[in-house]
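Entry: Integral membrane plasmid transfer protein
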Amino acid sequence: MTSTVPAPGIGKNMDAACAAVTNEISRTDGKSSLLLAFNGAVLAGLASVADQDLPLATKVFGTAAVMTLGAAAVLLLLVVRPRLRGDDRTSFPYWAQLDEDAIRDCMQGDPRAARIRVLSALAVRKFIHLRRAVDLSLTALALLALAVAGAAL
């Protein structure tokens, strides 16, 4: 039977990795909040001209822009939506289901590797949603530019 001896400094590296992934998750939440505010402001502006008599091209491109911004908003809301699954054994939702003795038992081993894995998967999922939302927001801005061009004709 072989035993694994941790390499020197692995604890420090794992602590740094946990902190880095947690920071990345925080960054996605902050960026998503800013984009939600931006998209909301654009949607509010569009709502103010919704009852205007506009050319057909403007209405078509404007409607497409509103729908695209709506899809972006949904993705952004998914980014900031709390994840409260208690099945990964490395998070507070799981610990909230346990009594004090079970929590102590969970803390016997080193959960950092599992925590890094779970948090990294969460961060990747958030960044994918964020990237798609940015792409949709940019598409909506292009559609709005076409709507404005249609109004100018």
